[in-house]
């Protein structure tokens, strides 16, 4: 089966109603460098929809060109990341431009994390872009939104903005967390606070947060502002919970899951919901988007916990063991404690002694801890898939492709080895 | 001349149109404890306007009571103290602030609350300015009708303007918490700074928490221009602090750089929040800019006098002040002016002001120079600009509007004449 993706330069956002599920803005250089098998054929001259002024540095005007992304994959699955690769670059460019500050030192500090090569897997933006495509259909509010959209910028651009804001908030939290944890490395390079000092890290994080607020206000939707601000607060809550845990709470699965929601899942769930709200979806559908993000985030963290023990091997001890070495008790240990109460005593001693850590790992290996954590992750992944299945029907092919990509992402979360 | 302030319990916000310039919500206990010369006389039963739900913890329902604040001041020379005029409203705001920062994580709540404790709240300067600004602009505007419709949906105008004051304080305290981490400060507002008491980590988190609460409160106002202005204020605070940290030798001696940094660190927050108050009141862009100008000039005047007091303290001679700026190697306006007269001082400054001997030499130059005097003059210029902005406000024959505009002018004078 081959899919033909046709991306046409659009005269106005009204073209959205003519069945194109989304507009992907390409620059000729981006296109030729990254996408595979593109045929470029000159067409009648049409203008690209202008991005929201001042924020679309990455987009180039397209004239006289129609791009076709010909993805002839007969049996291979569509890689969710490749499907949105160019849009991700666009977002990365805009992000870099958006953080240019009047104070150069701050700009270099903030840019530090948006450098090519240290951008992580761009997991969150990928989810959000597919969520946007998966919900791209006429809604009760489409007409009003279109009016609003032409005032405040095309829908897709605004949804991309959510992805940018999400990344800014995420990076700001990383910068502050690194100060808190005195971390040495982050994303494989020297963490900013080591390179430039704690002070600048705190300021750079604040700067990103304020830029995120300004970008949020530009969307003109106060529910969206409120949701993303709540996500920031949850990040703070989660980090605080981790710092101020009592011995009792440390051994509570409920406390751990709440903390995990705050630290990992809340950001992605709230931004998924924002994407749905901007699309004019109903409250029910927006909650489905939220549920997808929430369950995906929880599944992601649970597997993260497993990988910290197992690494690239399914046996123990090959992982980095960084959680347990920092005295952080995660799901596998919590499950193991249910089977072996003696393990509780070891944990209560603080896991500071290497000998204690070894004993704990022994118990973990004997127990079903790893297995049960994986099962719990699978349960959450299943909930996420169910949320996608409950989305309103659509016969648009690109909507189906993106929904499939979202399902695919839940599988990848479960099966990844790093 | 005696003024009679009549505060009537109101049935609905529509009473605003019957000439009351603002509703001050009193609880009987607050009232009796703080206001002077209050006579309470039972009247026909009326209900107080309910505050925006969930955020008005401090207000108590009033029934069957009419309060009269009788301020019988025969001598015209005695001015109304701007702070006393809004004392009860300030307490209301403080209560709401405390409630607003209650967190699901208790340790964070105690950290954030740390700065809103009674007694360590600073002079509540900013909220006082904002409340008077709200009163000073309380008049029918082209948007009043629409705003009233919106107001009944999203909360009474005065409550929303009070919310700006709360948000401003949250942002201000968040910046203090982060600055203390940056500066390894020992004390703040006379008590052990939070980072010493509870650690740097919790200070950073508490600051972030306050910022996110401020964002949520901002979004509840339903006005994206306001969100944008306050977010810009946050960014400016960050810019100002960064400028201070990363100054080159060249820039350190530049008056222009110093004034820009001062605007960012001190004036931007108050100017942007004044503008927000005006915007919420439905004022035109021109009037909103006047409010902005007032705040900007007031903030700059405040900081310039602050710089002077750091040298002079409570005496007009040098050396009695805390000298904390110069001891941290921070070059402020008096030194910058002195450098214009005595270029030799520049060399001393370029050495970093790390040696006590260098500091003494610099102070000598400062005393010989016109540095202090010229700084005070510059502050007076800005205070004058602030007063002109108030004078340019649209005419009103409402007495309370006049009282508040007078209070705003009074505040500019107090900024100049204060000794601490």
From TrEMBL, chain A:
GO molecular function: metal ion binding; prenyltransferase activity
Main location group: mitochondrion
GO CC entries: mitochondrion; transferase complex
Keywords, comma-separated and alphabetical: Isoprene biosynthesis, Magnesium, Metal-binding, Mitochondrion, Transferase
Gene Ontology biological process terms from the UniProt entry: isoprenoid biosynthetic process; ubiquinone biosynthetic process
Localization: Mitochondrion
Metal-binding found in the keyword field: yes
Gene3D superfamilies found in the cross-reference section: Farnesyl Diphosphate Synthase
PROSITE patterns recorded: POLYPRENYL_SYNTHASE_1, POLYPRENYL_SYNTHASE_2
Cofactor(s) the protein needs: Mg(2+)
CDD domains according to UniProt: Trans_IPPS_HT
InterPro entries: Isoprenoid_synthase_dom_sf, Polyprenyl_synt, Polyprenyl_synt_CS
Magnesium as UniProt keyword: yes
Similarity section: Belongs to the FPP/GGPP synthase family.
Protein name in UniProt: Solanesyl-diphosphate synthase 1, mitochondrial-like isoform X2
UniProtKB/TrEMBL annotation, chain B:
Gene Ontology molecular function terms on file: geranylgeranyl diphosphate synthase activity; metal ion binding
GO BP: isoprenoid biosynthetic process; plastoquinone biosynthetic process; ubiquinone biosynthetic process
UniProt keywords, alphabetically: Isoprene biosynthesis, Magnesium, Metal-binding, Mitochondrion, Transferase
Cofactor(s) this protein cannot do without: Mg(2+)
UniProt-annotated location(s): Mitochondrion
InterPro entries assigned to the protein according to its UniProt record, in alphabetical order: Isoprenoid_synthase_dom_sf, Polyprenyl_synt, Polyprenyl_synt_CS
Gene3D superfamilies cross-referenced by the UniProt entry: Farnesyl Diphosphate Synthase
UniProt feature coiled coil, ranges: none
Family matches, as SUPFAM superfamilies: Terpenoid synthases (SSF48576)
Predominant subcellular localization, coarse grouping: mitochondrion
GO cellular component labels: mitochondrion; transferase complex
Entry keyword annotation includes Mitochondrion: yes
Protein family per UniProt: Belongs to the FPP/GGPP synthase family.
Name of this chain's protein: Solanesyl-diphosphate synthase 1, mitochondrial-like isoform X1
